[in-house]
Amino acid sequence: MENVHLAVEDEDLYSGYNDFNSTFFTEELENDIGFQQALRTSQGRRPLMTAKLPGTAIGGRPLASSFGSRVPLASSAGRPVTGAVQEGAARPMTSIRAAGYTSTMMRGSTFDTLGQHRGPAPPLEGKNEDGPEEKIKIMEKKVNDLIEESCMAYSSGASQLALEKAKEARRKEQALVRQREQSGTADHINLDLTYSVLLNLANQYEHNEMYPEALNTYQVIVKNKMFNNPGRLKVNMGNIYFQQKNYPKAIKFYRMALDQISNAHKEMRIKIMQNIGVVFLRMGQYSDAITSFEHIMRESPNITTGYNLVLCNYATGDREGMKKAFQMLISVPLGIDDEDKYIPATDDSSTNMVIDAIKNDKLYQMERDKKAQAEKYIMTTAKLIAPAIETSFASGFDWCVDMVKASQYVELANDLEINKAITYLRQKDFNQAVETLKTFEKKDSRVKSVAATNLSFIYFLEKDYDQADRYADLAMNANRYNPAALVNKGNTVFVKQDYEKAAEFFKEALKNDSSCTEGLYNLGLTYKRLNRLEDALDCFLKLNAILRNSDQVMCQIADLYEQLGDLQQAIEWLMQVISVTPTDPHILAKLGKLHNDEGEKSQALHYYSESFRYFPSNINVITWLGAYYLDTQFCENAIQYFERATLIQPTQVKWQLMVASCYRRSGNYQKALETYQNIHRKFPDNVECLRFLVRLSTDMGLKEVQDYATKLKKAEKTKEIQEQRVRSGRESSSRGRRGSREGSAEDVKAVSQPESKLFSPLLDSGRDSSNSSRGERRSGKNISLPASNEPYESSSPKELDAYYVDPLGPLMERPKTGAKRVVEEDFADEDIGDDLLPE
């Protein structure tokens, strides 16, 4: 590197190339005397020059000879001699200079072998974008970019945007083809680009459910013989016809695609055969579907095809076919490695780190999902064919269990046994169900916990709470983390009114499984019993976030808001319930009650009327409507409601008396008299009826007045004697109790407090004792039945009061149903499924 010298920055490496010497100007050779004379010589030699010509170096530099002296020579035309160099000027050379040499190299400059003195290379010459080929390449790139953008838009869910991009790509591709035709390069059309554009456009049409356009685009591809293997796209056309439920055409195109695909593509042919079998299944042609599925199970068996084959044989009622298909299903290899590889077997930290990393990776999740799907199909088919393959479902289940035990799914045998017990439950054969579940008491902990949980549930339904509690403990001991077992244990404690302990079990169930909705619901009910209304409201609001549009949960929330005194919130939640179940008469009646408490009589009338329309047998609703029309002086409208009450409670004389009273108030005395006479025939000792008969007969001048008056006196005397007997009996009993208390004070201490009524969680009414006093504080005036001090009414209001009931009694019955369903539905999802409801 010591001999390497950098070039001077201002030195031009290419200097001298454009210098012009007049000596080499050939156009003036005709006027060159020396040149012309040389041409005339015989041998073409030029004569020696004797005179010095200006512009040459002949006078200053002698020519070297063999004697050591330099003899100056010159050409006849003044051209410098080869090798002669003028002073201060570069030596003239040919038009091509040798690479790496400069004008100063002959005068002591260092030779640059690497060309480092040259400096940076000049910029490359730009491409001419106006050329036809360059324009075509740019257009092709734009088309490819549009196809990519269309695919990305579809993958992000923007189907409409993907279709627009695909259409734009098609337009630009057509413009590209025209450009090539105009430039005369039609033979160089990019067929792969055209195929990609059309296929993407057809796919986007299909994704946007524009099936006619998609079919037309696929036809363009299929009919073009220049494309490679376009027949495969007939599968896509068959899929479109399948979506349109045009099954014959779908089979036609599937078969056409199958004919055009060689045997080398075995997997593709199997998938098309599976599509053909599914179409036959949809068409109800089970024999043809069985043929397709059996071919697939022989060539390349898979779980889905085996499941469909079992269904087809079940539809045809072929017992042997069902057995054969089930055996083929459980023998399908899953291709999943043993799970032992995920268990650390050595103390090598690096190996354990790798195992921890792959424990929950994508591959393991895929294997787990595949195995879960296979187990689901096997369990479903076993439950489906068990009652059909043998004379009894028990024998069928036993055969399925034996087959499963001999397969790779041996762990499913216990689950099938539990499903056998559940089938007994559906058939109301509880004894067989209990016997089947009791066989699991000595098996492994998981199955034992499941069986004990179901046994606890059965005994709870039978109100055998001791046995329910025993098996709940057994399930908890086998698996303390079983949320269903904890919920059942909490239920057994709940019925014993130990609400604090029940709440602890429900909380523990929620800790083990935060999605245990039964535990959360029952915890809310428990808090209601403990009068912890705010905590109960919090539970049900959380449950509402999990179970959207659950009418039972929303009913509980509305009831809690009512107990907290926020009637507007209660009304809003009940309105949400109505949006889910618009024909629920109990909710409509409850809305009418709340509006009545708020003083909104018109809204109350609307909801009570709707409730009566859907359920005309609710005596409380009937009472309110009748009292409302009596209060508003529309007695004719009240008659239909009291007549309905008469049909519901024919032994209650009060409703018939109210019908007669309505007729009398409306001025129809003849109809009122006939009604009272009918009442008298049914209830001859009724004093009220006889009083009205006496008054009406007197006013109308009837001859039966004396007869009715005699009967009235006799009935009043009989009633007075009965009342005296009742009073004397009460006085004697009160004296006896007072004497016994005075005589045995020690016995009083030994007597325990009267046992309160046990409230089952199945019958939670959503009300408490505070409701009775809360109604008196509200501004809304309660509607009551008419008093007896009006004309033609009894002079004894106390007697009428004994007959009439408060029309605003408890109407909130919807939470009862909710509590019953949720508390009883305490099976674990993995145990028996969601379809067994006690209702």
UniProtKB/TrEMBL annotation:
Gene3D superfamilies: Tetratricopeptide repeat domain. PROSITE patterns: TPR. Residues 781-795 have a biased composition (Polar residues). It comes from Oryzias latipes. Keywords: TPR repeat. Residues 714-749, 813-824 have a biased composition (Basic and acidic residues). Signal peptide: none annotated. Residues 108-133, 714-839 are annotated as: Disordered. TPR repeats lie at residues 231-264, 270-303, 483-516, 551-584, 585-618, 619-652, 653-686. SUPFAM superfamilies: TPR-like. This is Intraflagellar transport 88 homolog. Residues 825-839 have a biased composition (Acidic residues).
